[in-house]
Design a protein that fits this description.
It is a single chain. The protein folds into two domains: about 170 residues, Rossmann fold; about 100 residues, Rossmann fold. Helix 2 packs parallel to helix 3. A six-stranded mixed sheet has the order 1-2-10-7-8-9. The model has no long low-confidence stretch (mean pLDDT about 95). The chain has eight helices and ten strands. It has about 280 residues and is of the alpha/beta class.
């Protein structure tokens, strides 16, 4: 975790958890590992299948390689070349869904594949699997609490499957009910913040419970991209666009606190690095 001093208004700290230091390079390693660990005894020789915009797929791929589990991933056709290449290097099979349907199209195609050949696929389903938030409740929340020495007042986290904010919120609120959980989502239905979901226009993940969050912020694609550039120039952090959106949300919360003359410790989470989105020339 690092402190983003260049963003901080007076009296408020902003910290970012850099999830690209996980083995597969993103926050999704946490949930994927937990889901596979809890499912491995029931695979029965089937191929592990899930829909993904990239990072969870990469996590499944490297875990599958390590455990000798076959993996197939349903991805939107517009996923970055870097993500496709990494998943394939680990031996995963990639099945493409319609790019215009984004992550929901991948979900629908994965469900159809399982419906057509249930004996072939083990559908691990990150959007409904309770092991997803459990990974963050037991791990991410404890780390944030320990790394801030229990001083965290607000956690600002992007919504993808919902697993990170649900689990982290449960873990932090179990330690201090006063911690505010603030979700970040794209402002637009058709957006450029890969990995995040615009909930009003999306299939709502079964694991996502909006009643468990305290507030939701809508961040425009342009603002997320601009903040990612600012993180590079001012903090030396090669953060991805969803991280830029999370940082923009954290800054908004910090500025509101400072404007009211309140102190706070705002923690956000950067899911991955920008090189996950850079395609070779």
């Amino acid at each position: 975790m690092v402190r983003l001093r260049s963003l901080e208004p007076p009296g408020v700290e902003i910290h970012a958890k850099l999830e690209w230091f996980n083995p597969g390079g993103s926050v999704k390693d946490r949930a994927a590992l937990r889901m596979v660990q809890e499912a491995v005894s029931t695979l029965g020789g089937r191929t592990l299948l899930d829909s993904t915009s990239g990072n969870t797929g990469i996590a499944y791929a490297w875990i599958g390689a390590a455990l000798h589990i076959p993996v197939a991933l349903v991805m939107p056709g517009n996923v970055s070349e870097a993500r496709k290449r990494i998943a394939r290097h680990f031996g995963a099979r990639i099945i493409f869904s319609d790019a215009l349907e984004q992550s929901d199209g991948a979900i629908r195609l994965a469900r159809k594949l399982v419906e057509d050949e249930p004996e072939k696929w083990f559908y691990i389903d990150q959007y409904s699997n309770e092991a997803n938030p459990r990974a963050h409740e037991l791990g991410t929340a404890r780390e944030i609490w320990d790394q801030t020495e229990g001083r965290v007042t607000h956690a600002v986290i992007g919504i993808g499957t919902g697993g990170t904010i649900m689990g982290t919120g449960r873990g932090l609120k179990a330690r201090n009910r006063a911690v505010k959980m603030i979700a970040v989502e794209p402002a637009e239905a058709l957006h450029g913040l890969e990995g995040l979901k615009h909930m009003p226009s999306s299939i709502i993940p079964r694991i996502y419970k909006e009643s468990e969050i305290d507030r939701k912020l809508s961040i425009a694609t342009d603002l997320g991209w601009d903040m990612a550039e600012r993180l590079i120039s001012d903090e030396g952090l090669l953060a991805g666009h969803s991280a830029g959106a999370a940082a923009a949300g954290a800054l908004q919360v910090a500025q509101e606190l400072a404007g009211r003359g309140e102190r706070g410790v705002v923690v956000t989470l950067f899911p991955d690095r920008a090189d996950r989105y850079i395609s070779p020339p």
